[in-house]
Design a protein that fits this description.
It contains one helix and 28 strands. It is mainly beta and 506 residues long. Among the domains are: 1-127, no CATH class; 410-506, no CATH class. The strands form two sheets. It has a 26-stranded antiparallel sheet that branches. The chain has a two-stranded antiparallel ribbon with strand order 15-16. Strand 10 (186-201) and strand 11 (207-222) form a beta hairpin. The protein starts with a strand and ends with a strand. The relative contact order is 0.07. The model has no long low-confidence stretch (mean pLDDT 90).
Length: 506
């Protein structure tokens, strides 16, 4: 048990505690904090009546047998801005298989069973939103959430067969963006899916992987159209067949290996692709979409059978994906990779959003580069270019450097969010430089490029030895959240190697 009282200059102290215990078959990790004080703004000006303020961030994981595991997480706070007001870090991290978004907490319980050829998981979770616009009544209570997969040992027509089944129930109290008192949409889904794939390679190096997929879904929708008690059941079947074809070409040069691999995927899907839950005032259909709100089209999803990340939305029709992969592998360990690709479909899709890059017959272009040009130096860049005018619709880039006297990194992100919504664009830069074995400086900056404003800037003095690390950090935060405005602070963090965690004061 580690107790870390935080002594503040203008507001009441805040007591943090961290309890860890390891058992024979697992461990628990519990963090919490408490204070009794009035609320205050970013300048420390108090208002309102004194009240108790607290948080808990707990998790546990245990092995029942070599195959069975179970665990939990409990994440809650008494107010949305508590972590920012008291500078509490490492909040939004994974404490179980269900991972929340930034500035949201998730409490869960789960059990899993894994063998060499099967997987089963069952769980339930709830979410607390900490963003200013979040209303917890509109978040679904999820449970049960069941997923299973089984791969028989026997071959089927020379290929492997994989069977999947899943089920989920979602219940919410209120509908997002609707008048007060409007009940939220409830949904329950059961899915059965079988997947077959056979891969063969010719003597000339041509690799052919044929596959087939059959999926059946059953849905029950409750409180449809915002009317309490209205329910309906729907089912759908989707059958897909296709093939992946690749022909890697390799050539040895002096000191390096060059590989060029053209790849193609042809897929044909037939059957129902969407579940309708209502219509807009203009009469346009509304599709059920609980688990596929965000679609990221990049080199990792170019050859995916269903480019939606969840089950509710899926692709149909005839489509062709093409890509060229190029790799250079030097004998001294340096390497570089390039991927260029695009997807085509027989008809335009009304299911994909216009900002996804997949709604037209010809998709946007996908370009991705990754390289390690020297020891301790690496960089990556990936972008999605408009299929008609080649303008940048989404871009990510980054670099890392690590040398004997320090390390640093750079990250850049840009995404067009749609007509009238502008864009998201930001950059991160951070690192540390040591003048000798014990003394150094650290720095960090996060800039919102779309707003032309800094979100956070840090500069620090660092002392380290074999047992301790001391950081004195000057921080300027310019982001305004709720009642909190820009702020300036000096943080002192002492990390003891024997305890494994930082002790802080501000």
């Amino acid at each position: 048990l580690t107790l870390s009282p935080q002594i503040n200059s203008r507001v009441a102290p805040f007591l943090n505690g961290h309890y860890r215990q390891r058992f024979r078959n697992g461990a628990i990790d519990v963090r919490g904090g408490f204070t009794h004080d009035r609320d205050f703004d970013g300048d420390g000006n108090a208002f309102g009546d004194p009240t108790s303020r607290s948080y808990i961030l707990a998790s546990g994981a245990f092995a029942l047998t070599p195959e069975w595991r179970w665990g939990f997480s409990a994440e809650r706070t008494s107010e949305k801005l508590l972590f920012e007001k008291y500078d509490i870090g490492d909040v939004y991290v994974a404490r179980g298989p269900f991972v929340p978004d930034d500035r949201r907490l998730i409490s869960q319980v789960y059990a899993t069973r894994q063998t060499a050829r099967s997987w089963f998981s069952a769980g339930a979770f709830s979410i607390q939103g900490l963003r200013p616009e979040d209303d917890d009544r509109t978040f679904p209570q999820v449970g049960p959430f069941i997923e299973s997969r089984f791969e028989p040992m026997a071959d089927l027509v020379g290929g492997r067969l994989r069977v999947r089944a899943s089920a989920v129930a979602l219940t919410r109290d209120a509908a997002p963006g609707s008048p007060a008192g409007t009940p939220g949409l409830d949904s329950r889904r059961v899915t059965f899916e079988s997947d077959w794939r056979r891969t063969s390679t010719s003597l000339g190096g041509l690799r052919l992987s044929a596959f087939g997929n059959l999926r059946m879904d059953g849905y029950n929708i409750g409180d449809a159209d915002g009317i309490a008690g209205r329910s309906a059941s729907q089912g759908r079947t989707l059958a897909s067949a296709g093939a992946d074809i690749s022909f890697p070409l390799a050539r040895r040069t002096s000191g390096a290996l060059l590989v060029i691999e053209p790849t193609a995927q042809l897929v044909a899907s037939a059957g129902a692709a969407v579940i309708r839950v209502g219509r807009t005032p203009s009469g346009a259909p509304i599709y059920l979409n609980e688990d596929s709100a965000t679609v990221v089209f990049d080199e990792t999803s170019l050859f995916r059978l269903n480019r939606f990340p969840g089950h509710d939305l899926t692709e149909d029709g005839l489509r062709l994906s093409l890509a060229a992969r190029t790799s250079v592998l030097w004998d001294d360990g340096r390497r570089a990779n390039l991927v260029l690709g695009r997807s085509f479909r027989s008809n335009e899709s009304g299911v994909f959003s216009t900002t996804s890059g997949l709604s037209r017959k010809a998709s946007d272009w996908i370009v991705a580069v990754e390289a390690e040009p020297a020891t301790g130096v690496s960089f990556f860049a990936r972008s999605r270019l408009d299929g008609e005018d080649l303008s940048v619709r989404r871009a990510e880039a980054g670099a890392n450097i690590s040398v004997r006297r320090g390390s640093g990194y750079f990250r850049y992100f840009k995404e067009e969010t749609g007509p009238g919504s502008g864009r998201r664009e930001n950059a991160d830069l951070g690192g540390e430089i040591f003048f000798n074995d014990t003394w150094g400086v650290s720095f960090y900056g996060n800039r919102d490029l779309s707003a032309s404003a800094w979100v956070m800037r840090d500069i620090g003095l660092v002392y380290r030895d074999d047992c301790t690390r001391l950081d004195i950090i000057y921080r300027q935060e310019d982001l305004q959240v709720g009642r909190l405005g820009s702020s300036t602070s000096v943080n002192i963090r002492l990390t003891l190697a024997t305890l494994g965690g930082p002790l802080g004061a501000r």
